[in-house]
């Protein structure tokens, strides 16, 4: 199956305009991870941390997408693929609602902070002591923390039922968050104020919701197309 560019675009928009939500929920973790770097290497540290975080997203998306694909192959139920496709569209609509109402369903974000603190001893043993690998591995851990928006997109990755497509979806989402999260301690504040504008956020939510509606309708539209072709093959024509 070809890569669904509509879904990838919706995931990227979710990351870009959901980045303001990420600043509020993960800002403390982001600044804490960057604090140990020398001032001359602050931007490099922030970039490597966020690249690691995006890599964590993509890996998680590939895992859950592969599991979804395995379930689809094992079940082999008629109409299951179409049902999963429609559920994917529903998840995109929910993602759009999260952008409009960013303070709702925030329990996963507070859970992420608690998990991060509990994992501290284990993180210190697993993360390299220095070098460029340290911020990347720290970012990988960061990307696996529970977060409302990323978990919603992870559900979409599972419904993609493909390790490749699930990984690409989460990669697109992560790349959308990159400008704000990398510039958290540098120049992200001005950009964040622009993206926090309700009109921009609502416009992005409307586009994501539209992508979700099209995704929900796609199996039905495909069925209608097959039905039309079948009728034409039988020599049937609609009356003018």
From TrEMBL:
Annotated keywords: Membrane, Transmembrane, Transmembrane helix
Keyword match Ribosomal protein: no
Residues passing through the membrane, by range: 54-72, 84-101, 141-159, 166-188, 200-221
Superkingdom field: Bacteria
Keyword Transmembrane: yes
Domain Urease accessory protein UreH-like transmembrane: 10-211
InterPro entries for this protein: UreH-like_TM_dom
PANTHER family in the record: HEAVY METAL TRANSPORTER, HEAVY METAL TRANSPORTER-RELATED
The protein's name in its UniProt record: Urease accessory protein UreH-like transmembrane domain-containing protein
């Amino acid at each position: 199956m070809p890569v669904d560019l509509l879904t990838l675009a919706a995931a990227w928009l979710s990351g870009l305009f959901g980045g303001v939500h990420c600043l509020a929920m993960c800002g403390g973790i982001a600044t804490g991870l960057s604090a140990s770097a020398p001032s001359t290497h602050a931007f490099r540290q922030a970039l490597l941390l966020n690249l690691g975080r995006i890599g964590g997203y993509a890996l998680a998306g590939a895992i859950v997408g592969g599991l979804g694909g395995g379930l689809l192959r094992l079940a082999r139920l008629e109409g299951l693929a179409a049902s999963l496709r429609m559920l994917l569209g529903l998840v995109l609509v929910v993602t759009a609602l999260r952008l409009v109402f960013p303070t709702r369903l925030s329990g996963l974000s507070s859970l992420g902070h608690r998990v991060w603190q509990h994992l501290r001893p284990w993180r210190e043993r697993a993360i390299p002591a220095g070098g460029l690998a340290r911020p990347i591995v720290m970012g990988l851990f960061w990307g696996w923390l529970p977060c409302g928006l990323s978990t919603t997109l992870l559900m979409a990755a599972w419904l993609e039922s493909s390790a490749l497509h699930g990984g690409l979806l989460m990669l697109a989402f992560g790349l959308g968050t990159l400008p704000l999260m990398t510039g958290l301690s540098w120049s992200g504040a001005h950009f964040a104020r622009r993206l926090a504008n309700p009109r921009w956020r609502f416009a992005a939510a409307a586009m994501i919701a539209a992508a979700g509606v099209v995704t929900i309708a796609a199996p039905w539209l495909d069925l209608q197309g097959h039905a039309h072709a079948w009728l034409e093959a039988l020599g049937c024509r609609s009356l003018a």
